[in-house]
Amino acid sequence: MSNSSWAHFGYLVATEINEDKQRCVERELQMLCALHGIGVILLNPQDPGNRQTLIPARERTSIDWQSVNRLVVEDKDFKEFIDLVSDYLPDRKNTQSALE
To answer: 10 Å Cβ neighbour count for 42?
Structure first.
């Protein structure tokens, strides 16, 4: 969930939840989702269109640029993606100095 901080919406997708531990798992997911804004979707692998949103994701209205800059340093594919995106956001160029 840590990389969800730079996303507008984030979902954890599961194909099943252990029935014996369902109450405990749901409580833990509610807590984590409240902290991180992540939603939970229960997906039927045989029928992906038949899914159930257990917890809706919370939309982020601003980008966590500190996390984006950290990921740019750590992941060259992500850096290439951000370089492409930055063409559309000329007022927000990611720099190494933002990490310092």
So the answer is: 15
Q: How far apart are CA 12 and CA 5, in angstroms?
A: 13
The residues, any chain, with a CB within 8 Å of residue 98's CB and separated by 6 or more, are: 65, 66, 69
pLDDT digits (tens, 9 = 90+) for 38-86: 888 999 999 988 899 988 988 877 777 888 888 899 999 999 988 888 7
Residue 39 is encoded by which pair of tokens? 């939603």
The DSSP H or E segment spanning 85 is helix 76-86
Order of strands, edge to edge, in the sheet holding 51-55?
11-14, 39-43, 51-55
Distance CA 32, CA 66 (A): 21
Give the DSSP H/E element, type plus range, for residue 40.
strand 39-43
The domains of the chain are located at: 2-55, 65-99
Q: How far is C-alpha 49 from the geometric centre of its chain's CA atoms?
A: 21
Threshold 0.85, pTM exceeds:
no
Backbone phi and psi for residue 54, each to the nearest 5 degrees, phi listed first: -80, -40
